[in-house]
Amino acid sequence: MVPFPLHGQQRCDGLADVAKVKAVLEPIRARGDFDPASAQSALSTLGFTSVRTYQNGPTGVGFVIDAAPLCVDGDMNRAETHAYAFGGYPDHPGCEQPSGGH
Question: Looking at residue 43, what is its pLDDT?
């Protein structure tokens, strides 16, 4: 369940995507809008093909972005927005964290 790290140009691309995600979510976080639909709408402006948002507690929104070959996931809450870019998971397609185990 440990995601693949990014290296070289993919790492640079991932860091750029993280910066874009934080920039587009910060205004809605600052106004206290923790509706997943608002985050979905904001993230959709970035042109990613697959974005999933979900409620993460009463004042938080989580998100997973499949920007193949990169993935970005994270959350925003009253204090800040977190985002992390990675290269997917071993033995699992896509960017969703696999459940279960061996």
Answer: 97
- Which residues make beta-bridge pairs with 53? 63
d(CA 26, CA 89): 28
| Phi, psi dihedrals of residue 16, rounded to the nearest 5° | -65, -40
N-term to C-term CA, the chain: 11
Taking only the tens place, the pLDDT of each residue in 25-56 is 999 999 999 999 999 999 999 998 899 999 99
What's the pTM value of the predicted model, to 2 decimals? 0.91
Task: Give percent above pLDDT 90 in the chain.
Answer: 82
DSSP assigned state of 96: S
Strand duo 50-55 + 60-67: pairing: antiparallel
Query: What type of residue is 25?
Result: L
C-alpha to C-alpha distance for 91 and 76, rounded to whole angstroms: 28
For the chain, where are the alpha helices, taking DSSP H only? 8-30, 36-44
